[in-house]
Amino acid sequence: MIEQVAQIIKNVSRGAVLTGAGISAESGVPTFRGKEGLWGKFRPEELATMDAFMANPKMVWEWYNWRRELMSKVKPNAGHYALRDLAEYFDNFTLITQNVDNLHFEAGSPDIIELHGNIQRNKCAKCEKPFEDESVEILPDAIPACDSCGGSIRPDVVWFGEMLPSGAIERAFFEAEHSEIFFSIGTSALVHPAASLPMVAKQSGATLVEINPEVTELSGMADFRFACGAGEILPQLVELLKEDRTNG
Ligand code: APR
After folding, report:
1. Which residues contact 197 (CB under 8 A, 6 or more apart)?
2. How many domains does the chain have?
3. Which is deepest, 14, 21, 131, 235, by most CB within 10 Å?
4. What CATH number has the domain bearing residue 186?
5. What pLDDT is recorded for position 154?
6. Minimum CA distance residue for ligand 1 atom 4
7. 167 and 235 within one domain
8. 167-223 residue pLDDT tens
9. 145 C-alpha vs ligand 1 centroid, how far in Å?
10. Which structural domain range is residue 112 located in?
11. Domain of 48: which CATH number?
């Protein structure tokens, strides 16, 4: 099956991939759903919404600082690096991620669309001024304030009920509609609009490849499904392409 996917890649020029928390699982970053998922320990509406932030900013900041601390210790895994290398076998390859852990950037992928923001960045909750270089710590009794408008500084991630970064989702749908092969990797495909991207790609004529140890909403419509870890199968795919290129 992996050989068939490699053969398809050799004959197309445009590819795209949607990644979710599962691509970072092998780096030690907890996913959201599933056995050990974050949403099994915390309630999203208590931590990942503007209402939660306005009601209890200190708790929300503590949770994100805990996640930042965790993510400062993790590194990209073989799946991230394989996706970086995979881009070389396409004229156009766009990596669309729901993850906020910055690991695709650290791995060096060339063309990344972050649909849900990036936990390493902050912004003002009121005027959206970016605070990217400060390591914003919780002050003993107050939440850091924006030096332009006095609003509260918050993590630059998309919370439930919020709009995605302008331009990001539009570009993601464009790439899905124009891809000839689309990979859905490490996502439960439950949270829209991101979850619609693989279906849009498939309906637009792309070959749909899913990589996920668990069955998802997409599994029934995937042309190829690898029920294993991304860090296991993606390096095999890149290795096949490399060998083929070496053998001319
Ligand atoms: N390789 C591939 N997939 C994996 C691996 C792995 N090594 N380990 C786990 N998975 C799969 C799980 O089976 C699961 O289907 O990754 C998926 C992770 O799903 P979720 O935890 O739901 O994460 P995600 O799909 O990224 O969630 C989407 O929901 O809470 C919001 O903003 C949050 O971006 C997130 C969005």
Report:
1. 16, 18, 96, 172, 173, 176, 182, 184
2. 2
3. 21
4. 3.40.50.1220
5. 93
6. 22
7. yes
8. 999 999 999 999 999 999 999 999 999 999 999 999 999 999 999 999 999 999 999
9. 33
10. 2-29+74-116+162-246
11. 3.30.1600.10
What pLDDT score does 77 carry? Answer: 98
pLDDT digits (tens, 9 = 90+) for 49-83: 999 999 888 889 888 888 888 888 999 999 999 99
Q: Is residue 140 very low, low, confident or very high in pLDDT (cuts 50, 70, 90)?
A: low
Shared domain for 127 and 224, answered yes or no, is no
Residue 152 and residue 223 in one domain: no
Instruction: Please tell me if the CB atom of residue 26 comes closer than 6 angstroms to any atom of ligand 1.
Output: yes
Instruction: Establish whether residue 22 lines the binding site of ligand 1, counting it when its CB lies within 6 angstroms of any ligand atom.
Output: yes
Query: Residues of the chain with pLDDT > 70: what percent?
Result: 96
Q: Is residue 35 part of a domain?
A: no
Q: Is residue 39 part of a domain?
A: no
235 is a domain residue = yes
Alpha carbon nearest to ligand 1 atom 10, residue? 22
- Find out whether the beta carbon of 21 lies less than 6 Å from any atom of ligand 1: yes
Are the C-beta atoms of 41 and 208 separated by less than 8 Å? Answer: no
Ligand 1 pocket check: which of 32, 80, 95, 100 to mutate, most ligand atoms within 8 Å of Cβ? 32
21 within domain boundaries: yes
Q: What is the pLDDT of residue 166?
A: 85
**AA identity, residue 31:** T
Looking at the structure, do residues 97 and 204 belong to the same domain, yes or no?
A: yes
pLDDT classification of 13: cutoffs 50, 70, 90 = very high
Instruction: Assess whether the C-beta atom of 34 lies below 6 angstroms from ligand 1.
Output: yes
Phi then psi dihedrals of residue 10, to 5 deg: -65, -20
Residues belonging to the active site: 116
**How many angstroms does the Cα of residue 200 sit away from the middle of ligand 1?**
19
Q: Do 84 and 150 belong to one domain? A: no
pTM for the full model? Answer: 0.94
Residue 118, ligand 1, Cβ within 6 A: no
